[in-house]
Design goal:
The chain is an all-alpha fold and 69 residues long. The protein has 2 helices and no strands.
C-alpha cells in the first residue's frame, strides 16, 4: 500500500494518525464476508409491527387500523 501526500506538510504524528485510520478501515473491510447482508435498521423491520396485537375481525373491523397508534 502506497500513501502519497499531495497537498500540505503533515507532521509525523498527523501522518501516523491518518495511516492508522486507513489501515483500520481496510482491515475491517477485509474481515467482512463479501456476501454478507448489512444489518437492518429497527424502524424498517416488519416484525416490530407484527409484534402488536392485531384487532379481531368483526362488523366494524374496517374502521380499525392495523398500524400501532
Amino acid at each position: 500500500m502506497n500513501i502519497k501526500v499531495v497537498r500540505g506538510n503533515p507532521t509525523p504524528e498527523e501522518l501516523a494518525a491518518a495511516l492508522a485510520v486507513v489501515r483500520a478501515r481496510a482491515a475491517a473491510a477485509a474481515a467482512t464476508p463479501s456476501g454478507a447482508e448489512p444489518p437492518r435498521d429497527a424502524w424498517s423491520d416488519p416484525s416490530r409491527i407484527a409484534a402488536h396485537r392485531v384487532p379481531r375481525p368483526g362488523p366494524v373491523s374496517w374502521t380499525r387500523t392495523y398500524w400501532p397508534s
